[in-house]
Amino acid sequence: MILTAHQPVYLPWLGLFHKIALSDTFCDFDDVQYLKKDWNSRNKIKTPSGAIWLTVPVLSTGHREKKIREIEIDNSSDWRRKHWKSIYLNYKKTVYFNRYADFFENVYKKDWQYLTDLNTYMLKWFLNELRIKVVYHKASELHFEGYKSDLVLDMCKKLKADLYIFGILGKEYAEQDKFINEGINLHFQDYKHPVYPQLCGEFIPYVSIIDLLFNCGDKSLDILMSGNTTKQELITMGAR
Q1: How buried is residue 90: exposed, middle or buried, by Cβ count under 10 Å (0-12/13-18/19+)?
Q2: With bands split at pLDDT 50, 70 and 90, how would you rate the model's confidence at 239?
Q3: Rounded to whole angstroms, how far apart are CA atoms 23 and 25?
Q4: What is the pLDDT of residues 17-59, one digit of tens each?
Q5: Is residue 183 within 8 Å of 177, Cβ to Cβ?
Q6: How far is residue 10's CA from residue 162's CA, in Å, rounded to a whole number?
Q7: SS3 60
């Protein structure tokens, strides 16, 4: 079984979906410390003047002691209207805007208390639209133990993984020998960002998945996988 995991992030980039598409099982790592100015509460979209941030405001009191799943959204500002307006104005002329617009409009009409609820709701919708099928788990429901590399190893053992996919930065902290001793192969994803049709001038990479969906629709999965490791290649390669 191929396993990967990631913290819940807002409007994720393409690389996360490539990593999940390589897997049989995905674990939403909602049980680790929230990091301010990370990707948990923000991401970028493209505009005629370049990429801009969309940031979900959160209640920051005591955030250093809180897990991601405990972080509450600060609804004192009308961030939902602002985000929907930004998406509408910058993507209304894309080929597939009308296909997906209702979902986003409805998301930003809902009242959200916890950041992870918003992120998880959107992630599951993205996976469905991209036709990526995986077994889904939340780390907070499975009580993994350890820190950094040992935490990932415990997850792999409890979920009975044969191969685990790290992001490329995993090489900096993964204690690879421990995984190999447990019979768990490793792959470190080094995502190559594809170029695809965008509106408004030169291509800008590393923006949210919504940019790809609005511009490319049904072709989105093939595009985000292009030039990168496939699941069959991963199975054939085994450990790295």
Answers
A1: buried
A2: very low
A3: 5
A4: 999 999 999 999 998 877 777 789 999 999 999 999 999 999 9
A5: no
A6: 29
A7: coil
Q: What is d(CA 31, CA 7) in angstroms, rounded to the nearest whole number?
A: 8
Cβ(10)–Cβ(112) below 8 Å: no
Q: Looking at the predicted structure, is the pLDDT value of residue 203 above 80? A: yes
Amino acid at position 223, single letter: I
pLDDT of 240 above 70: no
Give tens-digit pLDDT for 61-86.
Answer: 766 678 899 999 999 999 999 999 99
Strand partners, 25: 3, 135
At 109, which amino acid appears?
K
**pTM summary value:** 0.93
Whole-number mean pLDDT of the chain?
Answer: 93
> For residue 204, with 0-12 CB atoms within 10 Å meaning exposed, 13-18 middle and 19 or more buried, which class applies?
middle
Give SS3 for 237.
helix
Please give the structure tokens belonging to residue 109.
Answer: 């009409």
- Local structure of 33: helix, strand or coil: strand
DSSP structure string for 166-215: EEGGGGGT--HHHHHHTT-EEEEE---PPP---SSSS---S-BHHHHHHH
| Structure-token pair, residue 77 | 């500002």
Length of the chain: 240
